[in-house]
Amino acid sequence: MAEKNNTQTWAILLFSIGVFMAALDNGIISAALTTINSSFDVTPNWGAWGITLYTLGLAVSVPIVGKLSDRYGRKRLFIVEIAIFGIGSLLVALSPNFTFYLIARFIQALGGGGIFIIGSSHILSTLPVEKQGKALGMLGGMNGIAAVLGPNLGSVLLDLTGSWHFLFLINVPIAIALVILGFLKLEETKDATGGKLDLLGTILLSMAILGIMYGLTNIEGVNFFESILELNVYGYFLAGIILLLILIIHESRLEKRGGDPILPIRLLSKSSYLLTLLIGAFSGALLAGMIFIPAFSEQVLGIAQENAGYWMTPLALAAGMGAAMGGMFVDKKGPIFAVLLSGIISAIGFLLFPMWIEAKWQFIIASSVAGFGMGIILGAPLNILATEKLESDKGTALATLSLSRQIGMTIAPTIYAGFIARGFNQIPTIFQNDFPKILQDNIREANISEAGLMEFQSLSAQVTSAGEIISQETMSQALTQIQDQELLEVIQTSVNQVTTVAAQDGYGGLFYSAVVIASLIIITTLILIPIRKRSLQG
After folding, report:
1. Residue 476 burial (10 A CB sphere; 0-12, 13-18, 19+)
2. Is residue 313 packed enough to be buried (19+ CB in 10 Å), middle (13-18) or exposed (0-12)?
3. 383 versus 275: which is more confidently predicted?
4. Is the pLDDT of residue 499 over 90?
5. Cα 345 vs. chain centroid, distance in angstroms?
6. What is the mean pLDDT of residues 16-39?
7. Cα gap 266→13, rounded to integer Å
8. DSSP labels for 139-179?
């Protein structure tokens, strides 16, 4: 018994480290994008492909690795995935040119995509039901903390080493250690399957996911609905959907012949599983909102970019605590309770951002509440719901759930970014309507000398006589002419306030939409309750 517990402890530890390393990588690169782009002499648009290809690689690998781990064994696939991720990391660090770098990033993603799925399905196959929530919560916590800490850790490593290559080289010794320990400490688990591997289905699924995800990544947040009508969006998306329909026909025929389809057709016919996938997509969309919180802290609260990472620490810790507590809630109260609690707490946390935050201490509380709510849903609840009453295909079920979450995480940022862009597009209007009052209020509160007040009156008369519309451009020109230092500071502060008002408006739309998504999680879960009850009784 003690030996079995020791084996399980090693398994959870190795899976947690692997999940943390893979989840960290897509965030850690964001801190070095500018440096990487400069080293390869490419534009920011081209440089963003380093992230886009990694996302596409994750989306493609997750469902395939989930199926392969069920079929060939989780220990074997974990070692293969870690090895591929380590090799990909080494190739990225040694990239001689940008094309090589992009290929290496895709290889890296193929290795990192399935680690969380393999770990989760191993836990669900080996641990008793009453202990699964806690273990899955730990994996989810690693996932959430890594996603939040990635950009900040990347900045630290870049400052310490001065080279972006070390951001990827650091993965290599960790991967080697995980491969060795995986061979020595993990026990093999797999589901009984029959028939040959569905090679055609694997190819069709890969191409369908690539088409859908690539089309989604081309959506522009500022003109969301207009960009959907662009050929590079709907064309790829439509092609992906057509391939998906062909895949479903192929998989249905294969299942009727007693084959082993790559897509869980049997699961997709269950309403309870489809609703779980929908909640998964909503949770991904909600998680994407976390990406914009550092920018909010900089543009609304005025926190310096180099210090923003420190202010994100409470959110990361809260997400980890939420994931751990979520696992405990699942073990004691069940997955439905945990999902509902996550939706409620997340909605409250995101609602605090536009309605309450005025000071930095309020930001810490609000981000911690939102992080805790999101953490609850990251690991255990949805994984338990997706695999209930399954004797086999656990990895496949979890992989499809992970894919739905990835789709939510891909669509949501374009919507969120659209709110932010529309907020900043209001700057000219805010200057015309609100800037004069903001400036007058700041002038009254400031201790400006008589000479400064005279200079201000002269400047006002000059702008009025010229008939110019007050704008950011006219104020920027005026700032170069002002002699009085106190007046200069007041006007600069007033100009900054206009930008802050625009940012508040944009981020307000983002956070209110996140509240709506959290509410949709609650509503969908309430719909799921009676359907799940009938399914468990059947």
Report:
1. exposed
2. middle
3. 275
4. no
5. 18
6. 79
7. 33
8. HHHHHHHHHHHHHHHHHHHHHHHS-TTHHHHTHHHHHHHHH
Q: Helix (H, G, I), strand (E, B), or coil: what is residue 260?
A: strand
The phi-psi region of residue 41 (left if phi > 0; otherwise alpha if psi is between -120 and 50; otherwise beta) is: left
Bridge partners (DSSP) of residue 274 are none
Under DSSP, the state recorded for 231 is I
Q: What span, in angstroms and rounded, lies between the C-alpha atoms of 5 and 185?
A: 12
- Which burial class, exposed, middle or buried, applies to 10 when counting CB atoms under 10 A from its CB (0-12, 13-18, 19+)? middle
Q: Is residue 403 within 8 Å of 208, Cβ to Cβ?
A: no
- Closest to 521 (Cα-Cα) out of 268, 352, 285, 354: 285
Question: How far is 497 from 145, CA to CA, in rounded Å?
Answer: 33
What's the rounded Cα separation, in Å, for the pair 403 and 397? 10
Q: How many residues does the chain have?
A: 538
Rounded Cα distance, 136 and 324, in Å: 8
- Alpha-carbon distance 371 to 382, whole Å? 17
Contact predicate 178/89, CB 8 Å = no
- Angstrom distance (rounded) from CA 461 to CA 464: 5
Buried b (16+ CB within 10 A) or exposed e, 172-185: eebbeebbebbeee
Lowest mean pLDDT among 173-187, 264-278, 306-320, 461-475: 461-475
Instruction: Please give the structure tokens belonging to residue 397.
Output: 């079920």
In 3D space, the residue among 411, 350, 346 whose CA is nearest the CA of residue 372 turns out to be 346
pLDDT of amino acid 373: 93
Report the predicted TM-score, pTM, of the whole model to 2 decimal places: 0.81
Backbone angles phi, psi at 467, to 5 degrees: 70, 25
Cα torsion for 326, 329, 330, 335, to the nearest 10°? Answer: -80
